[in-house]
Amino acid sequence: MGMTGASDPIIVWGAGAIGGAIGAYFIRAGQDVLFVDQDASHVEAMNRDGLTIEGPIDQFNVKVRALTPDQVQGTFSRILLCVKAHHTEGATRQIAPHLARNGYIASYQNGLNELVIAEQVGRERTVGAFLNFGGDYLSPGVIQFSGRGAVVLGELDGQISERLKALHALMLVFDPNAIMTDHIFGYLWGKLGYGSLLFATALTNASICDCLAATDARPLLRNIAREATSVALKLGYDPLGFNGYDPAAFTPDAPEAAAHASFGAMVTHNAKSIKTHSGIWRDLAIRKRKTEVDAQLGPIVTQGANLGIPTPLVAGMITMIHEIEDGKRELDWANLAELAKAK
Predict the structure, then answer these.
(1) Structural contact between residues 221 and 197, judged by C-beta atoms closer than 8 angstroms
(2) Which residues lie below 8 Å from residue 135, measured CB to CB, with a gap of 6+?
(3) Using CA atoms, how far apart are residues 206 and 216, in angstroms rounded to an integer?
(4) What is the pLDDT of residues 24-51, one digit of tens each?
(5) Lowest CB count within 10 Å: 17, 147, 212, 224, which one?
(6) How far is CA 60 from CA 57, 140, 289, in A?
(7) What's the pLDDT at 343?
């Protein structure tokens, strides 16, 4: 697969739920895309049979080019990093030699990975993104696009740059409602609050909707989101809402009714997706692999400690998730009751 000098395909590094879905739409729209994925069987299936998108929104197959990281040659100016949060540092190290001097890596991930990427390649070569659509890797060469959700792009310094506009124009192919923002960290911290709720739902076998709708679980869930929101506010970020999640409803002095309204709106949004459970739950229950818990929720606890804001619930949840990963704890509603006692 030799690259010609004139060719500068969009590199989608990580062809799972996020990268696979977005990359397939780009290809269908006529864009030159090269997938890179560490799963050799996935790469082989994609090269042989193409990439198949399934689900209620679209079903199609596109012919693709895919490589494993060790097969990549040349330099590229647009690299979308779509790997799990805890693989960010390793993947960025693999990418760095292939990133053009004036190019960028866009973090199409969950968490605050923009900071990890920027540390290695520089802030000026890092673009932020916030994605909340639903998808799952089903099998080699097959991705399920399960439900629409927020798609937001932003430069780390808040500028609406030419490259941001160009990337946004591309993303409209995937989601006509994709937007640009001058406050990407507001969305990323908003997602950390929402993400902490998703981790809580993954302590049980219940669906996201059933968990968020359970009145007896709401006081705990409200306090979990409140820890994340308190840290974000103290850091000086204004966490932004999306898809029913309203960070303002989870500030220390927000009325209980506001939280209930937000829970209701989140249930309504999630009910539109055929993805009933989170990717976190899938990692624990189906794929039996490590979750993104340290990379996603770790910063809430670390920053909280630095700022003197206690985060016992998020910290307790991290411990519980690790116990489930290690086979020492079952997925069960009882976990939420136990967590509620955490001090």
Answers:
(1) yes
(2) 16, 17, 18, 20, 21, 55, 143, 144, 145, 146, 275
(3) 14
(4) 999 999 999 999 999 999 999 999 999 9
(5) 147
(6) 10, 15, 29
(7) 65
CB atoms within 10 A of CB 174: 19
- The pTM score is 0.90
How crowded is residue 317: how many other Cβ atoms within 10 Å of its Cβ? 27
Half-sphere CA count of 258, side-chain side, radius 13 A: 14
Spell out the SS3 assignment of the chain. CCCCCCCCCEEEECCCHHHHHHHHHHHHCCCCEEEECCCHHHHHHHHHHCEEEECCCCCEEECCCEECHHHCCCCEEEEEECCCHHHHHHHHHHHHHHEEEEEEEEECCCCCHHHHHHHHHCHHHEEEEEECCEEEEEECCEEEEEECCCEEEEECCCCCCHHHHHHHHHHCCCCCCCEECCCHHHHHHHHHHHHHHHHHHCCCCCCHHHHHHCHHHHHHHHHHHHHHHHHHHHCCCCCCCECCECHHHHCCCCCHHHHHHHHHHHHHHHHCCCCCCCHHHHHHHCCCCCCCHHHHHHHHHHHHHHHCCCCHHHHHHHHHHHHHHCCCCCCCCHHHHHHHCCC
Here the tokens at position 66 are: 């895919």
HSE-up (13 A, CA, CB side) for residue 162: 2
The sign of the CA dihedral 284, 286, 290, 292 is: negative
- Classified by CATH at the fold level, domain 186-340 comes out as N-(1-d-carboxylethyl)-l-norvaline Dehydrogenase; domain 2 (1.10.1040)
The model's pLDDT over 209-266, given as tens digits with 9 standing for 90+, comes to 999 999 999 999 999 999 999 999 999 999 999 999 999 999 989 999 999 999 999 9
The yes or no reply on domain 10-182 and CATH 3.40.50.720 is yes
Q: What is the pLDDT of residues 126-143, one digit of tens each?
A: 999 999 999 999 999 999
Phi/psi for 52 (5° steps) reads: -105, 130
Closest CA to 188 of 46, 91, 300, 64: 300
Type of residue at 57: I
